[in-house]
Amino acid sequence: MPVFTSLRFKRVYMPVFATLLATLFFVLASNDVSVPNTTLIELSISAAVETQPVGVGGDAADDAVIWLNPVDPSLSLVIATNKKNGLEVYDLQGNAIQSLPLGRLNNVDLRWSTLNGSENSAVVAASDRSERAIALFSIDNVSRHVRLAGRIHLDFKRPYGLCMYKSGSDIFVFINDKSGTYQQWQIQPDMISGKLVREFKVESTAEGCVVDDQTHTLYLAIEDAGVYAVDARPNGEVDRKIVDTVGAGRLKADVEGLAVYRDKDHQILMASSQGSDAFVAYNLEYPWTPVALISIVDGIVDGTSKTDGIAINSSPMGAFKKGVWVVQDDNNAWPWLNQNFKYVDMETMLDQIERARDSRKPNARRN
Ligand SMILES: [Ca+2]
Ligand SMILES: [Ca+2]
Predict the structure, then answer these.
(1) How far is the CA of 32 from the centre of ligand 2 (A)?
(2) pLDDT at position 365, please?
(3) Does CATH place domain 41-360 in 2.120.10.30?
(4) Between the CA of residue 18 and those of 5, 6, 22, 28, what are the distances in Å?
(5) How many angstroms does the Cα of residue 339 sit away from the middle of ligand 1?
(6) Which of the ligands is closest to the CA of residue 53?
(7) Ligand nearest to the CA of residue 50, numbered in listed order
(8) pLDDT tens for residues 273-310?
(9) Ligand 2 centroid to 94 CA: how many Å?
């Protein structure tokens, strides 16, 4: 190695090498070498179940909500929109068990209430573009039958995104039209009328939204801009806080479905980054630190792409011991079929996040 022993190396390269080494030490010393838990983790996971395809071709499957069966959790339901046909109801194995061909229902959500009397029953709301209304449904806790209960008609031209909020015994629906106007309706006990309690506007098209009832926070996704937090209470401020923006490196337009996961160890806000076929998981509290960038890849069933709506239920049900995450899939492959929904086991996903965190700790034990 003549170069290393030459006079030229000692005079010219050695000082450069020493400077580089010193710089490296300085950089390492000035940064925490251990990676904090807040560092974004990249995960690839596979869905455990997929639903039967929707009965209509093209872009039809859109949004979903999960109904926890209070009698037998293994008999819980996924209620999903076919935006060209109405509501589709699936069991936890993905079998289609009921279809409600009511027109162009776009988004769907659910809350438990005593609106119908003393019995605790679910109220399902869907944005109804055919009737320009909020369509309201009830579910029989024993037969699991989903039934149209009524509609609240709107002055919107094109009802679009929808999510629900429960505060005490009050049940609210947030619904927007494609121009970005949001209305907040309080559902009345007759399930056919509502009280408009608030209206506000965002600057461009927004669809996906979810409310974290525990913190009274409405999270909304403006498709080309990002995810924002707004006080969900009827008398709350309409000022928005930024959760994340398109261009910050994690979300790629359109930003679509949002969902919330809560158990004693994990509190997550999930967002669909449709433009990158991915999802971003955030801590469910200010300043909503991003936790993981997630792709749902081919496994037992095909992976998901260009996802619109998502839904999460944090309760154990059937094979899903820590709840289930339902994801719309734009391109249902193997073979190519109409669109459908994929079910991701939250326990598997949370385990993967924990393992990725552990492996990044400087003294991680590798099994
Ligand atoms: Ca797919
Ligand atoms: Ca498939």
Answers:
(1) 44
(2) 56
(3) yes
(4) 16, 17, 6, 15
(5) 8
(6) 2
(7) 2
(8) 999 999 999 999 999 999 999 999 999 999 999 999 99
(9) 11
